[in-house]
Amino acid sequence: MTENFLTKIDVDKEKRAELEKQRREAETELMENRIVEAQKDYEIWRKKVLNCAAELEKRITEHDTAAIQCGMVKPEITLQVIHDAEADLEIAKMHMEESRNTLCAIKLQLRQQQAAGEELAGLKVTVKELDDVLLRDVGNVIRECGKWPLIIDPSAQAATFLRYRDTNYLQALNPREMEAEKVRMALVGAIRFGKPLVLDMMEVDMFDTVSARMDEIYPGLMADIMDKSIMKEEKYIKLLKQEDGVDYDKNRFNDARTQNFKFFIITKNPSPPDDLVDLSYLIRIHIPTA
Question: Which UniProt keywords apply (predicted)?
């Protein structure tokens, strides 16, 4: 009797465990479907922000060109167009932020469901530690890990820190700074003089967009940067042009400097795309509360 009773208890436990497993799997599937829909909504607004930023830059250029070339009888007209474009951009950013917050919240729920108490991945550092971690690379962690840092910093303090250091700094949301020739020269200069190239994506996930722009320089350039092979002579000489001048002649490049080249990506997005995370050495900026 006792043996049968214990067997029944074990069977009941297994049934309950199986039902619990099925329930969790169903919840996970539901959550993953919600993530897919939220990701689609976020992508719509991300692209809207890019389009609005390009439109604003276009209107500013038109205004400046008209003012320089022929003067302006009614500058208030073009200024109003600029203000309207600025308003459109801010509205798009607001919607993008809302959609991203929704996406992040659902992802957080899923993470909590799958692994309660699990901390966000990435090395936590303060802004004061960035000089040692990024620029000096104490311990040669970045040099030896095979990946470049992806710096997650909603506070934007890391961006300010790096902008005012000896870096070549590109803001991905600025169409002028993302012109292929501007990107090429920023990269060439960073390699030639052995300093960091910083790509600030701000609050928009633009890695694929920037990669496509780099493909205009030569196909596969972003892949060469990310796997660090761009530091090899047979790679970086593909970037050089005769009109770059004597300072950028291939004979002026030397390993002592080119091996100090670094590539940093900054994002305000606390949950960047998984494929970018997989390619990167993840760093999260920690802001002390006291």
Answer: Coiled coil
Give the dihedral of Cα atoms 160, 163, 167, 173; nearest 10 deg.
110
Helix (H, G, I), strand (E, B) or coil at 144: helix
DSSP 249: -
Asked if 175 and 54 count as a contact pair (C-beta separation under 8 A), the reply is yes
Rounded Cα distance, 228 and 235, in Å: 10
Other beta carbons within 10 Å of 210: 17
Rounded to the nearest 10 degrees, what angle do helices 180-193 and 207-215 cross at? 90
CB 270 within 8 Å of CB 154: yes
Contact 204, 89 (CB under 8 A): no
Instruction: With beta carbons less than 8 A apart as the criterion, state whether 276 and 211 touch.
Output: no
Q: What is the dihedral of CA 83, 88, 89, 91, to 10 degrees?
A: 120
| Side chain identity, residue 20 | E
Q: What type of residue is 123? A: L
User: What's the CA angle centered on 271, arms 43 and 135, to 5 degrees?
Assistant: 115
* Alpha-carbon radius of gyration of the chain: 25
103 — pLDDT class (breaks 50, 70, 90): confident
Q: Where are the beta strands (DSSP E) in 99-181?
A: 123-125, 148-152, 168-171
Structure tokens at 2: 């006792």
pTM of the full predicted structure?
A: 0.67
- Look at the alpha carbons of 24, 26, 29, 35 in this order and tell me if their dihedral is positive or negative: negative
What is the phi/psi pair of residue 281, to 5°?
-95, 110
- pLDDT per residue as tens digits for the range 229-264: 999 999 999 999 989 989 999 999 999 899 999 999
Question: How many other CB atoms are found less than 10 A from the CB of residue 130?
Answer: 22
Question: Are the beta carbons of 261 and 232 closer than 8 angstroms?
Answer: no
Alpha carbon distance 186, 167 (integer Å) = 9
